[in-house]
Amino acid sequence: MDWWFLPLLTVVGVAVGFINVMAAGGSLISMPVLILLGLEPATANGTNRVAILVQNITAVSRFKAKGYSDTRLSLTLTLCTIPGAVAGAAAAVVIDPVLFKRILGAVLVAAVILILRRSAPASTAGKGPSRPVLAHLAMVGTGFYGGFLQGGVGFLVMPILHTLLRLDLVRVNMHKVFIIGGYTIPALMVFAFQGKVWWIGGLALAVGNAAGAWIGTHVTITRGERAIRAVFTIAVIAMGIKLLFA
């Protein structure tokens, strides 16, 4: 591949990392970009995991430095995702490339419809009973989806944590980046073992994702729920435009 692809991926990564931390759906940008650059779908999927891992390590560190951390809850939720993530990644490696592209396209459409119907999560933290057992069970299926595709997994994680655990959106994002970062490790190992990772491109994308994650974490903490909802809405509009003019 041409060398100029690398700085392009870094620039794309900044936007992707910011969107992923503030809301979700950034991988629905980076995945198609990697495929357009010539990677087969499985390799694009694996390469994207390098950036996702670095992005979430950055975000977790930033949240913790600012006093936002609940390691015990984050860890138990993450452990529930890992079996599904490994199974999902194994399925993604062997799936037919044409079918994978169709699934990715269907997810793009479903994500836009879902978010347009529900908008950003309402401010319901503390207004109902917490259901930690149900939240942990929901993470199992979330892990499979995240291991298989990754793109848009935050659209699943955020409502689960916000609705079932009654967390405010800042803490939702705090746990979200820990959970996704955690299950990304075994998922990436599956892709790497099968030779489905373009490491140079993944690292170039990771530089941008890390920068975007740092910015997104800062905005999440300093601006709070209003900023999260704003980015959520912008993400919806951007994906809608992409679908209309694709």
The dominant shape is globular
Strand content: under 5%
- Rounded mean pLDDT is 85
Uncertain residue ranges: none
Structural class: mainly alpha
What's the short version?
The chain has 9 helices and no strands. It is mostly helical.
Task: Describe the structure using short key phrases.
single chain; 246 residues; mainly alpha; globular
Please render the helix and strand layout as text:
Blueprint (H helix, E strand, L loop, with lengths): L4 H18 L4 H10 L4 H25 L5 H24 L2 H22 L13 H17 L5 H11 L4 H25 L5 H47 L1
What report would you give on this structure?
This protein has 246 residues and is mostly helical. The protein has one domain (5-245). It is built from nine helices and no strands. The mean pLDDT is 85.
